[in-house]
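Sample entry was shown:
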Amino acid sequence: MNDERQYPPEFTHDVWMGTLEFLTYNAPLAWAEMMGRGVRFVMPPQVAARPRVQDRAAALARDERQRLVEGDVYYFDSGACAAATQVDIRRQAVDQLVPSASGFLIWEEPPMVLSGGIPIRAATWGLSYDGGTWISWWSDTFEAVRLRGLPAQVLGINGPLTFHEEVHLSPDSWPFQVSDLNSPVYGMFHGLFAAWTAIDTKAVDESELAPLPAVKKRARRQLQVDVKPVRCFRAAEAGGAPTSPQTITRRVLAGLLEDRPYSGELPAELAPWHCYVKDSGHCLLVVLDPVGEDGYRPSAGGNARIENAFVPVPVKAVLRAGYQISEDGYIRTPVRFDASLGVLTDPEDDEF
């Protein structure tokens, strides 16, 4: 390792490989022993139903290994870690926030330090058995050995990371620990959700680090897996950028969208905001112009709040009423709005 940076980006593949080796060879036995001592693990129901602790431990290790094999690999340098502390985390569907379906993320600067000074160094996530999200956090084995005077053999067993804690988030749930400063696990939750938000809002810039040939060879020979490049993040030079139209649309209309392309032609500036909404058909996600005391008035104050001002309006209704593209790229249109009834459009404008 680099003496000046304990966790430079070039070390990420080694950490990923070491964690994968632990899950492949040592986790089933280590976790079975912990279960035998009464340590509780979060488990899917079908795993918890297995009578033998050895079988339960092996199943958990196998699932966690699969998340590492399938997921993207992320690295947040110290600048990206600092940038993530400044983002506004917006409550939303977790599966719309994660940057990939499954992933493995390392922080150069840990988001939380456990008792005894041992830092949380990494997190993994992936799809859970019920369509929700499974998250695990990992602490720094090197620091545990150094601070606690543990034998070096611990590194050979656990690898560079030590499994710390896991959580299951059911579909459409949102963990209160993300914003509860009094929660003992606030740092872990907030750190991970802030990292996801920083990626989503472009508060961090991305580059790619390809695996070395020796790492690729070792992974294939010893673990029969392919190694993905590391998605490395640093603080954005421009200080962040607005969230993409596609992401805003997924958030605002979560659970209401269908994947249906528009058959007609749309002006280039409108196309990113097209969506097909159940019961409403082909629409554009727009911000309405203010229409009076009892009408619609969008709130100011950044991306998280302005997103609450979006509404889907039939494509033809927007084209009929006219529109402007604001400096931030949003569609603004003067279609009629009633505080009780919502958007008022001609039924002939509906397209299904």
